[in-house]
Amino acid sequence: xxxxxxxxxxxxxxxxxxxxxxxxxxxxxxxxxxxxxxxxxxxxxxxxxxxxxxxxxxxxxxxxxxxxxxxxxxxxxxxxxxxxxxxxxxxxxxxxxxxxxxxxxxxxxxxxxxxxxxxxxxxxxxxxxxxxxxxxxxxxxxxxxxxxxxxxxxxxxxxxxxxx
Length: 164
Fold this sequence. Notes:
Elements: H1 2-15, H2 43-58, E1 65-66, H3 68-84, H4 92-102, E2 107-114, H5 119-127, H6 130-136, E3 142-149, E4 155-163
Parallel strand pairs: 1-3
Antiparallel strand pairs: 2-4, 3-4
Helix pairs in contact: 2-5
């Protein structure tokens, strides 16, 4: 009976796939782990979060708080993009579900980027894109970001926003 329940839940999760971007490649399967890896913040990540909050202040919006469990999801997805050399929102629905279940999120959004060398350049690129700016200026309460440099020297970024 437990196997049937697990199978049913798994099928329901697979059938309810959604993405924050129409460019999502759901055919790529990103392994999800129960081991939460929450690395120490890099200076570029600290700078990105500060720039986003500075922008929100200028727009008259409340600042966002860091929530460590989000970092586990930004890190795993950024690492996945580095390993596959592919910038995507692959498996966003799984990250969103994880944060809804484990962090009490009501809503989740995600920005990804590739190739920018500074915090300023990646945040400016997001702000110059209507959909990415929408996430930055959205009705969220918490956020986190991961920046990882691939062996090719390029930086990959995942920025997740959560409303609790």
